[in-house]
Diguanylate cyclase
Amino acid sequence: MTSQNKASGQGRASGAHDLGGGERRELKYRRLVGEMRRRILDTTWPPGARLPTLREIAAESGCSLTTVRHAFDELEEAGLIVRRQGSGTYVDEAPDRQLGRTVVGVLVPDTAAYFPPILQGIEEVLAENGARLVYASSQYDPAVEKEALAGLLAAGIDGLLYTPLIEPSDGDVAKHLARVAEIPVPVVLVERRLSGAGPADDTYHVCTDHEGGAYDAVRHLYAAGHRRIALAVRRSLGPAAAPIEVGFGRAVSDLHVTGMVDGAPREAWTPERADLAVQRIVREGCTGVLCFGDREAILLIAAARRAGLRIPEDLAVVSYDNEYADVAEIPLTAVSPRKYQLGRMSAEMLLQRLRSDDVDGPQQVRLRPTLVVRRSSTPAHREDATAPADDNQRTRP
């Protein structure tokens, strides 16, 4: 069973041998759930269809029977499938989705990596309101995105929850505003905003406050005693990279600490790339690091240990994602975007637009991530990292 996420799929394949058994199993499980969810929502497996057996899916996906069984459990709990004793497992007929008066389209880049919790929140709100869901994935391909959008509009959707493909290097804000304005149904952008437009951005959107998330990560490391802090970021990793870098820069400036950005524009991290990052971090005397991406943080920790560093005694690590942070060999302190809540709020905003012509809009929401503290970050022990701060520089984590 193949993931639809071409971009992240390529990145995650490189250096996979550095992931422990637990991380690999969790990654395969989440990809499997995402792919099964996609097949249900885009009607590859239509309502009422009998699903392949556990053994058939295990053979196709390369997952164990236990992993497939857990995937079935999650999809059943989400109300997407039903089990009938002695007969098999079927896609839920979902009469509320099939007969609902409101038809909502959802167009996102993928279902396997970042978006499953967002989709869960969307699905729940639409089900609670008797709305019908029509789903499509752009697969990180502009041509596929254009075709998928046309297909959703042809299906007669009343409104659209949309995560457009916006390249970090594409600064043509007017073009993006025009694209959204041309869609002939109400639109709410999901985990996207046209930040470069400033006050001209009149889109409805719900997105993560990535600047705030990065700021809080630096503040956490500062409170632990670190005064030289690095940011390891893959600038090609989507539109979140730039605001994370901005938030990091603002935090090191406000807290009067030394910051270093390791931000080579590589398509994927490898063990060799992680080794180079650690060498630079050590050379700059940094004792704490914020790393964009759980997988990248896991590779960074492996490289640090190869270099003889102890985690967190010699190098404290905070990951930005919290997708696989809890299953890492050393559980990662992580900035955790509130994806489920973001999905729910996006769906609620769109339904409100569809029900009322006089919404005082546009509505624009940024959700600040939470910080989940685990074993990869503890108070620093180095002399330069434990020097007392001025009272007016102390900040709560």
Summary: The domain at 96-208+339-360 is CATH 3.40.50.2300 (Rossmann fold).
